[in-house]
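## retry 2 of 3
previous attempt timed out at serialization; input unchanged, resubmitting
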Amino acid sequence: MSEKKQASLLVQGYEVVIGFETHAQLATQSKIFSRAPTAFGAEPNTQACAVDLALPGTLPVMNRSAVELAIRLGLALGSHIAEQSVFARKNYFYPDLPKGYQISQFEIPVVQGGEVSFFLGDEKKTVRLVRAHLEEDAGKSLHEDFIGQSGIDLNRAGTPLLEIVTEPDIRSSAEAVAYAKELHKIVTWIGICDGNMQEGSFRCDANVSVRKPGAPLGTRREIKNLNSFKFMQQAIDYEVRWQIEQIEDGHAIQQATVLFDPDTGETRAMRTKEDAADYRYFPDPDLPPLVIARSWVDEVKAGMPELPRQMAERLVAEYGLPEYDATTLTQSPAMAAYFETAAQGSGQAKMASNWIMGEVSRRLNAEEKDMAQVPVSADTLAALLKRIADGTISNNAAKQVMDELWSGGQSGSLGGGVAHDATGDLVGQGAVLSAAARVDSVIEAKGLKQMNDAGALEKIVDEVMAANAENVAQFRAGKEKAFNALVGQVMKASKGKANPQQVNDVLRQKLG
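## retry succeeded, writing output
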């Protein structure tokens, strides 16, 4: 490793070491050991049944769908899927844990090993996984400070979780965020989790420690429940600085669980950190070992979608895209599908990539929308790209067309009597306009068509050269900037309708 790269991994002479534990809420209709629903936002304690409340005489029954989703993750991450795994009782006492223990997995988890690969800039990184194990969620304590009371909502108790644990392979907050984003992409892509961080469906805990290079691992502190990528980076950066300051001041780091306060930008200790022995794990006597037949794994594998990394490699091979483009376009299934439709419809893969990563993404970000909400269909974008490629309009004019298409033709450029049908297609004179007709209608109405009449363009060039003899003389004397000035005058004289490439060609021909 170069000295420069080694230095980039150090903070004030210390190496940062981070491991991640991520709780992904599985997208099942019912809880992991009961038939109670898992829908978010219900009135408190309306989705907790006798099993969730740990009433006497109740017994847990395993949710087959939760196991299948765990298998999907294992296949996606190249993990070993245990043919037999065991559930354990993790004992601790909190008001939101009715049984006094959490059903989890300890010694033999269902998913073992695997890895997550991603790019940090142009550098490929790989984080090894220790395990992913099934467990139930706890309830939620609600503190109403304004009336001085607390309550317990057990709607979430028993919700199925998959806890994904990494090796301590991460070396910076930026790398931690990149890993979390990639894992988030994978779990949502394969449909095992909705990834809603605000609702707690995807919660990350970062175990952070620092050490001098080559020294043993330092004492870690666990930052709990990081529910946004922005706060994740802020929390880790603060924790790293705090630990280094403590060590430099001669203090020892104490293992602890901490919370991040986004208002102050600081972490604060919540409790001393427990070790496995403190939870007194033992196999749950109410649940037999979980046995997964190889035939079941094969069945799940046959139904798996093309994974993001596989699709990115295919986009590079099939469409000749740079790896950066392919990785960006596979951020979600919706974006990937949008690109492929636009690229195939236009025959302009790189142009489609540029527009989706540029104009389309910029507009969606400004409106805080995602690809599922894009108001311009991929077919319509393909028609627009065709008009750029065949020289009908310039790239700048195409942006004006996109403005009109994006707003749904509200300025009237799509002609009188135009409205939207139930699918969002534009309807005129009782018929749905095709994508190409829609684009051409805007081009025509706005007068954006480029001048492609060679004779007319030559006439304008002759007039510009006659009126700008000094620039002509300067160019012929070797001053390239004079050529740009002439191009600008031609474009101005044509009111921006001349094809820039044709202008360049005709000018250079006439200038000798």
